[in-house]
Amino acid sequence: MTSRIRRAAHYVMGRLMCKNVQRNILIATAVYAFLSLVYLFRVSQYGADDTINQFMRPFLVVLPLPQSQAGSATKSARKVYPSSPLEAAELYRKLRYDTSGAWVDEYYLHSNLLTVPKGENRGKRLSSVDELQFYDSDPRLSWSVYLHNIMNNKEMHDYEMPFSWYDFADFRSYNRLVSIKQKYNDSINCHTLINPVFDKDTLQRWERAIGEELFQSERYKYNDPYWYRNAKSFSNKAVGNPDSVCASIYAPNDTRFSLPLNMTSYVERARPEVFQLQARNVLYNRVAHPISVTMLHSDKAAYRIHVKQDDRSNMVQSGILQEFIDSRTHGDETQDIKFDHDEMFKIFLNNRMAEKFKVNIPETDSSVYDNDEVHLSIEDFKFDAQHKIRMLRDMDPASLSPHDKNYLASLENSVATHPAMATKYFNECGGVIQFKSMGHHRDIRFFNGALIYNQIEYSARLNSMIRTFQKFLKANGLISWLSHGTLYSHLYNGVAFPWDNDFDLQMPISHLNYMAQYYNQSVIMEDPTEGNGKFLIDVGTSITVRTHGNGFNNIDARFIDIDSGLYIDITGISVTSDVIPVSKFSYYDENAALNLKNSSEIQKLSDKQKNDYVNSFSGLAKLTIEQLKEHVADNLGKFDVNQVDDIMKMYNNEVHSLPNSQVISKGLSEVQRYYFNEKLQMVNCRNWHFNTLDMISPLRLTQYHGVAAFVPNKVISSLKIEYTVLPQYGFSTYERHTFISKVNYWVQGTVLRIIRNTARDPSLFVIHSSLNDFRFNDLLSLLKNMLIAKELDTFTSIHNSFEATTYRQKEMEIEYDNNMHSMEKRMYLRELRRDYSPKIHSPSKDPLMLGYEQSLWDKYLKNSDELESEEIMAYVNENTLRARWKMYSKLYEGTLFKVEDHYLDNVGLSLFENSITEGREIFKHDAKFTD
C-alpha cells in the first residue's frame, strides 16, 4: 500500500513539473479567480438566490458569501426542513394527501419571526421585534399573541381586543414590496399601484432584490414581448391624475409595515397583480375594523370578543407581541421561544373566562343539527322588524352590545328604505382587467390575487370557506340550506362542482336576523386545530326590504374570505309581496291558487291587515310605487337622476307591465299579493326565486364537504325550477368535465382523454370499458395512468375527497331506493351519519398550509437531486394509491360501510357498480320519505 502511494505521489509531482500542466493550472486559477469576482459582484447586486448565482455556487464552494448576504450565519444557524429524504417524503405526503390541520413544523421567535425571510436583508437575524419592518402573520404567531392578551387582560367586563388587518389577513405578497421599499423608493410610489401593469424592467429589479417572484399567477406573461406590448397599451383615468386616488407618504416612521403611499380609492382598471397591492394597501390603511372577532371551537361553540375601533396598531406597534415574549423569556431574549397556538387555544377553552365570551342565541336550538330533519313553519319566514326595534330601544343603552347597537341602526335604516331606492351594498371588483370577468366574484376590500389559474388552491379556499361556515351555523344553531348550483353539486357527489366560483345558501328570514344581530361585522376564525380560515360576516343594511325593488341588493349577506375576497352568497327567504313568476315547472296548484285569489280572504282584506302591512315600514317606504312617483314629482330637487330612473322603472313594471302579464298575481295590489303569497305558503328571496313551504320543509340533514348541512325537502323539484335536471346518475358531461361514478368525481375533459389513453400511449395502461359503462376492472389502470401521466392534481382531488364523495353515493343509494319503506330509510341514514360521517376527512387541504408546504417543497426541489426527488414522489404516490385501492376494493366487495354487526353496503341501490341500470332515472322525481 505504501509503495503504491509513493508511486502515485511521484507520478503527480512529475506531471506538475511539466510545462504544459503548469500553464494549464495557471489558466485554471485565473479563470477561477475571474469567475469568483463575477460571482461576488452578482451576489452583492442581486443576492445569493439569483438564478445565475445559484448555478455558479456549486463551482465556487470554497468561496464565502459577503456578510450582508450570509446574514450572520452563525446567529441564524437552524435546521432546514426537510433535511433528509425521509423528511422530504413526509413533507410531500402531507402536501399532497394530508388534509388535517396539523402543521408540518414549528414556529419560533428567532428562527422564524426575527429572521428576515425576503428583501435586501433576507437571512439577517434581528435582535428584537423593534427592528421588524414587516412580518408575515403566521397563524401560530397571531393566535398565540392575541390569546395571551385576551387571557391576561385586566378589564374582564369591558375588554376589547386590539385589532389590525395586518395581523389577521394575508399580506405576504404586499410584504414582498415592503421588504425593498428603502432600496427602491424611487420606483415604489403611487404610480406603481395605479398603472394597469407593472413596468417589466422595474419588476425584474424588484424581484432580484426580494429574492423571489412578486406574484405567481401569470408571471410568465411579462416575459412575452408581444403580450407585454399589448398590456402596456392599457390605461386608466388615474394615471394622469394620481393625486385624486393616492397620497404619497414621506415620513419614514409612518411607513413601517406598509408602503410609502396611501390609496384613497380603488382604481379597478388594472391587472390582478397590480390591483392586489392596491386592495391590500386600502385594507391596511382604510377599511373599517370588524365589530368583533369570533373563535370557533370546531362546530361546538363560538366565542365572540369585541374589537377596539380607534386603533389600527398591529401586534408589534401595540406592544402585545413584546408582552407575550416577556412572559416566556423572563428577560432573557436569547431564548428561541415557540409559538404554540394549539396549546394556547386549549388553555383558553379550559379557562373560566372563555364562558364570558361564549355566544348563546336564545332563539335558536344548538342541538338542531343532531336531528334527521327540521320542520319549519310559515312563521319562520316572517319577521316583525318594528317590534324588534321597539324591544331594542326599550332596553338600557348600557346593556346593548356593540353588535346590538349596529343591528338596531341597520333595522332603523332598513324599514325606512323603499325597495326602489335601496343603494347597492356589496362591492365587487368587476373592473379588474384581463381577469375573465372573475372580479365580479370577489369582494373588492379583500381581493388578494387571481387564484383562478391554480385549481388546487382555488378549491382549497372554497372548501375552507364552506366547511367553516357550516361549522359556524351548527355551533350557533342557525338554520340554512344549500341552494342553486351548490345544491346541484351536492346532488352528485357531496362536494362543489370543480368549475364553481362560490356557494349559494338560503336562510329563513328569522335566522338571517339572528345572524345579523349577533354576528354582523364579525371576523370568524376557524378552529386552529382544524384549519386557518378567516372570514367576515357582512349583512346588508336593507334586510327588511324583501321585494326585488331596483335589483341592486339580491344578496342579503356574505361570508367573505378575507385572504382572497371569495365569498358565500346568503339570501334570506321570506313571505313577500313580490309577483310569483311564470315557471316552466309547476310547483303549486294553480286551480287552488286561482280560487284563493278570487276569494274574500284576498279580495276583501280587513283594515287591520292593511295597516299591519303598511306600518311594518316607515318614512318613504310606506308609500306604494304610485304614491312614491307622485312624491318625487312634487319634490324633484331632492332626488338624483339615478333614483328617479329606478323609481320610474319600478313604476312602469307595476302599473304597465304587470296588468298585461300572464302571472297568477295579476290584478292584485301590493298588500293583497303579500297575503295571497302567505296563504299559498309561497316564499322567496329578493331575486324572484320562489318555493312553496313544503318544498323546503322538512329540511334534511346531510354532509357537504364532509360537514353537517341541510338540504330542502324536495331537492329535485327545487332544482327543476332553475335547471334542466338529467334523470340519470352516472356518466354526464358539463362545463368540459365528465362525471365518472366509479371515482365520484367530475374529471376535466383534457385530463380524461390522457388517462383513458385514447392515443394508445404504450407507457400507459389500456382502458377497455366505455365511460358510459365504466367497469371496476379498469379503475386501477385509470388511477395508475393519472400517476404515470403526472395528472397529480386530479389524482389528489379524487383521493382526498374519497370519504366525502363515497358517503354521498351511499346516502343516495338509500334515499332514492323506492323499494325501501320510509322508516327503513330514516334508520339506515341515521346509522350512516352516526358511524361514517365522523370518519370523513376534509376533501381539500387548508389553503394556507397548502401554500406553506408547497413553498417548503419547492425549496427542497430547488436544492435537491432531481432523480432523488422523482423517486420520493413516485414512492409516496404509489403507496398512497395502494392504500386507497384497498378502500375501493372494500367498496366493490361490499364491506366498506360496516355498522355494528352488519354492512350498509348491502342496503339500497348499487350505484357504484351498476349506475347505468340502477341510476338510470333516479333523479326523475324527488326522493320519497313518506309511504
Automatic annotation (TrEMBL):
Residue ranges of the TM segments: 21-41
Keywords: Membrane, Transmembrane, Transmembrane helix
Any one GO CC term of the record: membrane
Principal location listed in the UniProt entry: membrane
GO biological process terms on file: glycoprotein metabolic process
Domain LicD/FKTN/FKRP nucleotidyltransferase, residue spans: 474-723
Topology class, membrane: Single-pass membrane protein
Pfam entry (one): LicD
Localization in the cell: Membrane
InterPro entries membership: FKTN/MNN4/W02B3.4-1, LicD/FKTN/FKRP_NTP_transf
Protein name, as recorded: Mnn14 protein
